[in-house]
Design goal:
Blueprint: E1 9-12, H1 16-28, E2 32-36, E3 50-52, H2 58-65, E4 70-73, H3 80-88, E5 92-93, H4 97-104, H5 106-116, E6 123-126, H6 129-135, E7 139-143, E8 153-156, H7 163-172, E9 176-180, E10 184-194, E11 200-202, E12 206-211, E13 214-220, H8 227-243, E14 248-257, E15 262-268, H9 278-281, H10 286-294, E16 308-315, H11 328-334, E17 339-342, E18 352-360, H12 363-378
Parallel strand pairs: 1-2, 1-4, 2-3, 4-5
Antiparallel strand pairs: 6-9, 7-8, 7-9, 10-11, 10-12, 10-14, 12-13, 13-16, 14-15, 16-18, 17-18
Helix pairs in contact: 1-10, 3-4, 4-5
The chain binds adenosine-5'-diphosphate.
The site of adenosine-5'-diphosphate (ADP) has 19 residues, from strand 7 and strand 15.
Amino acid sequence: MTKPLAPTVAVIGGGQLARMMAEPAAALGIPLRLLAEAEGVSAAQVICDQQVGDYRDLDTLRQVTEGCTAVTFDHEHVPTEHLKALANAGLAVRPGPSALVHAQDKGVMRAKLAELGVPCPRNAIVTSLADVEAFGFPAVLKTTRGGYDGKGVWVVREPADCAEAFAAAEAAAVEVLAEELVDFRRELSALVARSPSGQAAAYPVVASTQLDGICHEVIAPAPDLDRDLAVQAQEVALTIAGALDVTGVLAVELFETNDGRILVNELAMRPHNTGHWTQDGAVTSQFENHLRAVLDLPLGSPAPRATWTVMVNILGGDTDAGRLYDGYPHAMARDPQLRVHLYGKEMRPGRKVGHVNTYGDDLDDCLERARHAAAWFRGDLGNESE
Ligand code: ADP
């Protein structure tokens, strides 16, 4: 191969986030090198410089990052000690291991946020049923590591509900975190990008709708959000990014309580589902700003391009009625302004296989168009709607 014209960035994990990083990487002429968990996974379909291997194996990580300027991630599951070993060998690990551990371990995250004075749900590490009883029902139990999309989260209302969480934690050799069950009005997300030089860009705070722990819909900006609360949410995200020395995108998932407060739910240190709207709705997408931050380039503007942007995920339905590519003629003809992003994944029940974005001045119109398109691809609408 000819010598790369720009520094190469290694990306660990071949999911849709890595796939979507490839788009701005191509535009900016930044070569990516991928470590994929299996052949043909989402990002492996679009990043040609790739290797298949196990991200839990240090030698594999060393091999794939050789000659790269920086390494970043599609997911948060690379063992902290491997990240430290790569950093010690001189590689720019972004985000670095001491920052990333707060997105990997909910116990570590809660302790740190308490130290920073960031508002969180009441919480405690619990090691027994007696501990949960002392904490009080109802509660939410979470495994401290390894959870995603609602896996590893249990709402418990009585002692009998707790066994599953403790069994899962024991099997995975992790701890159990108890949190108060927050009576929230809605979920918000504050996304910032931060570069190693300390430059930061804060995106408008968005509202997200989760079903069964999976993000379904995002509205940017969050409708009717009190201005002071929006500013507070952005400040919280910037404070966390700075205090933890985050490099790249940080997503802070928040609860807006019914009495007008915000509480931090969790952190993600990579492009996030609640930031997919930025691909079509912001001057610079979260994927581009993540890459810029990873390479310590000046960040792009996070300003919105339209009054409203709506993102709706395309999830596999219960049947195999879904139509992805086959859904294009109707979806594209019905709405020439629709923006479609598919991940190259097969439809499976509950699986995120893509998303659509709409933008404009009328929120109801944006919602209708995005929901219709997502339902159409999912296969929930019959031919009568054509
Ligand atoms: P994951 O790591 O799977 O994303 P989260 O901690 O974000 O797990 O929890 C998944 C979902 O469960 C949240 O989006 C929220 O809807 C609900 N949830 C989590 N923690 C609480 C809580 N303390 N009170 C109420 N609901 C919660």
